[in-house]
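Figure 2 data, in text form.
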Amino acid sequence: MRRRTALADFVAGKRLRRFVRTSLLLTAMLPICAAQAQFCAPVAIPNHYGPFDYNVEKGGGLQQVERVHFTPAVEALLRGSSGYLGGDLSYTLNAFPNHHRALASIMRWGATTRNPQPPHLQFSIDCYFDRATRFRPRDTVVRSLYAMHLAQNNRKADAMKQLQYAREVASESAISLHNIGLVYFELKEYEPAREAARAAVALGFPSVPLVTRLKSVGQWDDAREAATAAASAASAQPAPR
């Protein structure tokens, strides 16, 4: 009986040591796994059509993909066209990683289903946004959509980083600044929304939709903004010799 007990204790101890070693090994591997998870998927999918820039390619290739895979019913998330809905959206975003409307569709799909990877979507929604930013880092529409997606998933700090980068890239584009300001407004970040509106107005864009929304929540006063603009213009004047 003693021998059996001793043997059982030895086996139990051996299993315990093995468990500890395995646990330590898994803990050491966590940073590697996290890095691999962050990498997501390559922009160029082997043996797949594309990738092409949605902002540049407006010819037959884009039209063909949209006619077959990104139909109005697919965009509205009603049903698939060539097969499953997720498959058609995947094909579209594999061919055109920064396809703005397709990214907006998967963002809405994730919000309504509360699923990070809805059925038959080849990669996660995060992955498709990651691929889009790697493919065209300076695409401010992609950055704005990504910010909205992140905010919807309680990752506001990451959303603000995307918008900050978009603001820097769009510093000379009035309409881009205005649209980035609209995203700030949706996130209830009113100060950067006002700054974007001021910058858009200074560049000659009327900024009406954004200003109207800011006024609706008491975050824009015409007289104060006029005085701020006048002071800014005066400070920009060269000092007299």
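Caption note: Residues 1-37 have pLDDT under 50 and may be disordered.
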